[in-house]
Amino acid sequence: MSKKNNLFANLKSDFASGLVVFLVALPLCLGIAMASGAPLFSGIISGIIGGIVVGYLSTSHISVSGPAAGLTAIVLTAITDLGAFDIFLTAVFIAGLVQLILGFVKAGSISNYFPTNVIEGMLAGIGIIIILKQLPHAFGYDNDFEGDQAFSQIDGSNTFSTLFSIFDYIQIGSIVITLVSMVILISWDKVPFLKKLKLVPGALIAVALGVILNEIFIASGSALAIGKEHLVSLPVPSSFEEFKAIIVTPNLSGVMNPKVWVVALTIAIVASIETLLSIEAADRMDVQKRYTDTNMELKAQGIGNMVSSLLGGLPLTSVIVRSSANSNSGAKSKMSTIIHGSLLLVSVLAIPVILNKIPLATLAAILILVGYKLAKPATFKHFWEKGKYQFVPFIATLLAVVFLDLLKGVTLGIIISIIFVLKGNLKRAYFFRKEQYADGDVIHIDLAQEVSFLNKAAIKQTLNHLPENSKVIIDAKDTVYIAHDILDLIHEFKTTRALDNNIKVKLKGFKKAYHLENSIDTQNHVTIEHYYDAAKRVMVKKEVKDEEFLKQENSN
């Protein structure tokens, strides 16, 4: 089947999904541009390029790209330091070029090392952020910009203090429209005959009804009428010349400025990491469980950033909020992403006045449900039941994402996961058991499948605490890999301390592949291989009595 046929194979469901993502992306693009200190239209341009260009080049079926909240602080600082937006665009172009190179050198492979519990913790954290950030908009308090994910806000307040401030700025009209939108969105998935109307997404009905209700409030002079400051605010050019003035192109003289290169590398690294995290999350949300070529994704993002900069757009990444909305709306292929970008382009050119009538309260209702689906109680229960080694990195990532930021949260989660892996390695390198026989104890030390140098301290401590005059079997029959450090440790124990303390040692299952055939036992002048052969001979028996153990050991 051709690429074209693949793109149009699920047009019905993809169009509905693309429409929902378009409605979510519109205020986010504007809000992120505003917070970045960039022209408002630059956010829309970035969203269009992310949808059409990156959407077409990417191999991801669910992911949606556009301006990212995680880059807001970097962009704001960079524009200020560089002194002009057109010079900043040069840095974005270079960043895109760097990402393209990263794709060719296969840097996208690092995404394979993101633990599942950390990715799920990141998603749940983003879900909680969405809910906390959208609640003020649902009540009519629109002090913070759309798309903000930072705990500490630009105005000096934070996520929690803003929630407490809601009660001083309640807009009854916004609450009414939020509740009506919520009822529609929930009913659309629950009521049987409404579920059949897949081509018309519930989000579109909610937005349309929100606009109509507010127009009725305004026409009737009701106190419920929502003011302009609580609606979408898209720039409306009055002429073609005014529209052309919106498009800013890069000032290539900035190439010689060292600061431009620092900004470019910073954007390239942060945008690439955020993209890889989002792609990993999007693949987990894909009900068909398809996997994205992450190296191709870096190339697509690089080309997207280069094109965006040439048209005056912000840097872009794959973004979780829009990807989640896309997945939840039933997207089947990347056509939904392309449709969302196309709708952004057509709407800002043809119907900006209508878009500026959309209440932010309606969009808040849509996003709150997206947030809930990311942070469902079932997810917390799932990782709690998996035990502390899965739950602790999950919850630590979640909290750090909420209170710090996405990258710091994921970094903390990965660090905790690594610590647990190392701790687990140290503990699980061997299984220790003791059995009672008629003439004494025989201690068994069964080595695990893989025994690395990280296990050396634990095994050394165990061997050093073996009692005098004991009998020990060290069993490696199930071991696939054993480090030289461990082999040397066992050899030294058998040929020195074991003899000094009258500890009888038997080795089982050690293979020639461990490359110690030529290690010499200085006490008896025989090779370690001889010990292995003796061990193999007794492996045919289920167990041996104490006298047999001593007899076979003395025969060596």
TrEMBL record:
It is a multi-pass membrane protein. InterPro entries: SLC26A/SulP_dom (IPR011547), SLC26A/SulP_fam (IPR001902). It comes from the Bacteria. Its main location: membrane. It is found in: Membrane. The keyword Cytoplasm does not apply. One of its GO terms (biological process) is transmembrane transport. One of its GO terms (cellular component) is membrane. Keywords: Membrane, Transmembrane, Transmembrane helix. Residues 11-397 form the SLC26A/SulP transporter domain. The chain crosses the membrane at residues 15-33, 40-62, 82-105, 117-135, 169-188, 200-226, 260-282, 303-321, 358-375, 395-422. This is MFS superfamily sulfate permease-like transporter. It comes from Flavobacterium limicola. The lineage of its organism: Bacteria, Pseudomonadati, Bacteroidota, Flavobacteriia, Flavobacteriales.
